[in-house]
Amino acid sequence: MESSATQTETPITTIRDVGHHEGQAVVIRGWLYNLRESGKLLFPQFRDGSGIIQGVVVKSQVSPELFDSIKSLTQESSVIVTGKVRADKRAPGGYELDVTDAQVVQKVKEDDPYPISLKEHGVDFLMEHRHLWLRSPRQAAVLRVRAEIIKAARDFFDDRGFTLTDPPILTPAACEGTTTLFPVDYFEEQAFLTQSGQLYVEATAMALGKVYSFGPTFRAEKSKTRRHLTEFWMVEPEVAYGTLDDLMQLAEEFITHIVTRVLERRRPEMETIGRDISKLEKIATPFPRITYDEAVKMLNDGHEKGLVENKFEWGGDFGSPDETYISSQFDRPVMIHRYPAKVKAFYMEPDPQRPELALCVDVLAPEGYGESIGGSQRMASYELLLERIHEHNLPEEAFKWYLDLRKYGGVPHAGFGMGIERAVAWICGLEHVRETIPFPRMLHRLYP
Ligand code: 4AD
Ligand code: MG
Question: For residue 339, how far is its CA from the centre of ligand 2 (angstroms)?
Fold first, then answer.
């Protein structure tokens, strides 16, 4: 949207849109990103959140006051600039700005400069200054891709007849295991921050058929890996009458939709991030599907060839190195289904053919990014579910309502959860999930 600056008729625009104003004067409201000098010329670079543009200030063509004011601008000072847009093939965005006026909104003091200079900083320092680090082009690009992924995820479900239903964040009981709950004082009662909206979307699926949730979830995990946050955002579809096969088809279509959307709409951001997109261009349905048994065999064959360090014992859960090895065998996400029930959550439907297995699936992203989706068919039997709740030492009282779903018109149903941050890390090719969310929460990180 364009509006007019109050003091002049010059249109206010964003750097992204300067191309619509070639040859015209415009006003850009932003910050000083960088400043180079060359004799009687100044080359201030401005950023406004939508992009970066280089300005040119020629000493002989502007007032001495303006020249000096720009010359003394400090990094990240906020400034409203007026200038004429000129196409320049060599400029990164294709345009430069011949500056004619500048109004400094707030000047960063010389004796207290912007802490993040354009040279390299250590990650700890940057994390301490996350509130400022977000201004860097790469971090801003990641946030735009994140927003696109969220939009793509929501559009995918909205366009397929799913209804968004929001589960509570304060909950009376565990969903994914009692060891990773964050307790909260809830008046006279004990509550917990939700680990997953799943149990609640199972209820809304029985009311609306196809539903999903998208919201924050919490895990009091003490793990310090590049894949774990203590607070993350999860998308969770749930389908009444859905089976494991339906779920796998939904998951592969969902991931393919998201990747395709990012490639369509966020190429410039992917370039800023430096992502090699050729690997993403290969993502298409169908994804390979292997059983847990086949995955174990793959690991042990790898062990015999000296490619995998340890022999894998059937019955255990896969660790990161195992997942990395398995996914490295494929050029697209791989779906591993039917894990031993013992390593999975209490609510999963047993495989009728082999009840020691659960009708579940984990989708592993390529390039070593590991599990990005976990899901399952849900337990249908009231009696068996009650037994599992007891086996897992879960408080029956808190699950009474959940058991009701099996008493009053219980049906087969299935759903999955995808952590947005895992998807962003993989799609952007990031080292660590801490850069996928504006303000990450981790084991030793609660500030800023
Ligand atoms: O595999 P999880 O724990 O499954 C559930 O929570 C199910 N209740 C979901 C469902 O069926 N509706 O978590 C699902 C996904 C993982 O595959 C991963 O992408 C992400 O959530 N995730 C995390 N992301 C960041 N940090 C963590 N600590 C995560 N734990 C899980
Ligand atoms: Mg999982």
Answer: 11
